[in-house]
Design goal:
- The chain is mainly α.
- The protein has two domains: 156 residues, Up-down Bundle (Vanadium-containing Chloroperoxidase, domain 1); 250 residues, Vanadium-containing Chloroperoxidase, domain 2 (Orthogonal Bundle).
- It is built from 16 helices and four strands.
- The strands form two sheets. Strands 1-2 form a two-stranded antiparallel sheet. A two-stranded antiparallel ribbon has the order 3-4.
- Helix 14 runs antiparallel to helix 15.
- The longest helix has 29 residues.
- The protein starts with 9 loop residues before the first helix and ends in a 6-residue tail after the last helix.
């Protein structure tokens, strides 16, 4: 446990001056103990559990996972912000309908207990259909921390802290329910009433499984920070069958790259494709969850205190949440077809396929339009907020998939978060599911989402 630090707010100073004869020094210290006094163990442990929950719970594909990670992040942040330094501020007031309960003035709260209760309650609420072996981790994690904390404070403080954490989680979940398009959307990933438009160059369900469109209405989900104007990207390249056209050239880039990888060439690009894939349900965490996994490594390596940890997770979660909304809004605004259809229909390579999510002899393509890339958007958003917190020269080695043998999982090292985001975006070409324009515009859109979250009034 780190050395204790105290923080003092102007109103608190007045209260202490009035009550100094009523409290001992130890009591005052306990009441106003800051989150800087505690390590990141509670936040890091729960966000590790989160990766399994969003990986294995049916329906939690990229945009749904991103949205829920954002709401979980808000709940965690708001539950302990009153214990953070004067530098930080609640952001709840900017969201109509989000009514975060207040702490009781002058009462002691044990912030790790508060946070543990918040995570346990909101995980249960957001993952009601999680498979038992993963849902049980919620209760196990909560109990483990409760057993640790109950001996550190009085029963009264412990009970008060638990109650407050659960009340914050309930408030955030109630607010989530007012977003009809996004709340519990895991129950309706492929709505039968959506019929994709037809015409040259427009997306249709793709070979080999021809799955219906995934979350075609996601663009109407409530946003955390990004504005409608910021969500709009430039028009994609004009559809053309001319071999000299820009889109034909980009399709050929994807086609040739995959053909050479399948021939045993271009190992580096195959490694990049595998390293960043995160596409296949239950095989790994989702492309959105990937950035929680990255944040976990940063929080752990930097040994940040409890407050900075929840601040990190809140910003990453809200940024990728908005990234998913923005990307899916634009995907279904343009309805641009995937490279697999262009390469088969226009170039005439009728046996061509991606190298994503192999199942036996078949590979797959995500069941939604290509432009812009969701992967690229998630990565740009997360990189923008992580850079804002940890700096533009923060280098790291990403160990997300180290040790796996079903794909190339060797860790990769980066000089900064933007370099990670750029490689993540580029990886969609050598896996065969995007044109270069999808990756470039998705990355720029993600940076916008991240900047919008950075603009929120996090600090006084």
């Amino acid at each position: 446990m780190k050395n204790l630090h105290k923080f003092w707010k102007f109103g608190v100073l007045s209260l202490m001056a009035f009550s100094v004869t009523m409290c001992t020094d130890d009591e005052v210290e306990a009441i106003f103990q800051s989150t800087t006094s505690f390590d990141n163990e509670v936040a890091l442990s729960w966000n590790t559990v989160l990766l399994d929950l969003e990986r294995y719970t049916p329906g939690y594909r990229p945009p749904v996972s991103a949205r829920n990670i954002g709401y979980i992040g808000i709940a965690a942040y708001e539950s302990v912000v009153n214990g953070m330094s004067d530098e930080y501020s609640s952001i709840a007031e900017i969201y109509p309908g989000l009514e975060i309960p207040r702490t009781t003035s002058g009462q002691e709260y044990h912030w790790p207990t508060v946070l543990n209760a918040t995570y346990a309650r909101i995980f249960t609420q957001f993952f009601p259909t999680a498979p038992f072996q993963y849902a049980s981790k919620i209760q196990e994690t909560e109990t483990e921390f409760n057993n640790e904390f109950i001996g550190q404070v009085s029963q009264e403080v412990f009970n008060r802290s638990q109650e407050y954490g659960r009340n914050v989680a309930d408030a955030v979940f109630v607010w989530s329910a007012t977003d009809v398009a996004g709340h519990e959307a895991y129950q309706r990933p492929h709505p039968a009433d959506y019929v994709p438009p037809t015409g040259p160059g427009l997306w249709q369900p793709t070979y080999p499984d021809y799955t219906r469109a995934l979350f075609p209405y996601w663009g109407s989900v409530r946003r955390f920070a990004i504005s409608p104007d910021e969500m709009r990207i430039r028009d994609p390249l004009p559809y053309s069958t001319d071999p000299n056209s820009d889109i034909y050239i980009q399709a050929r880039e994807t086609q040739i790259t995959i053909n050479q990888i399948k021939a045993g060439q271009r190992y580096e690009e195959r490694w990049i494709a595998d390293f960043w894939s995160d596409d296949c349900a239950a095989k790994t965490f989702s492309p959105a969850g990937r950035w929680t996994a990255v944040a976990n490594q940063v929080v752990d390596h930097e040994n940040v205190d409890l407050g900075k940890a929840v601040y990190t997770y809140a910003k990453v979660g809200m940024a990728i949440g908005d990234a998913g909304i923005a990307a899916w809004h634009e995907k279904y605004r343009f309805n641009y077809q995937r490279p697999i259809d262009y390469i088969r229909q226009v170039i005439g390579d009728n046996n061509w396929n991606s190298i994503m999510c192999q199942d036996g002899s078949e590979f797959y393509t995500p069941p939604f339009p290509a432009y812009p890339s969701g992967h690229a958007t998630f990565g740009g958003a997360a990189a923008e907020v992580l850079t804002n917190i940890y700096g533009s020269n923060y280098g790291m080695t990403d160990y997300c998939h180290e040790g796996r043998t079903d794909f190339i999982s060797t860790p990769r090292t980066f000089d900064n978060f933007n370099e990670m985001a750029e490689e993540n975006a580029f990886s969609r070409i050598p896996i065969g599911v995007h044109f270069r324009m999808d990756c470039e515009q998705g990355l720029l859109l993600g940076y916008r989402a991240g900047r919008a979250v950075n603009r929120l009034p996090w600090k006084r």
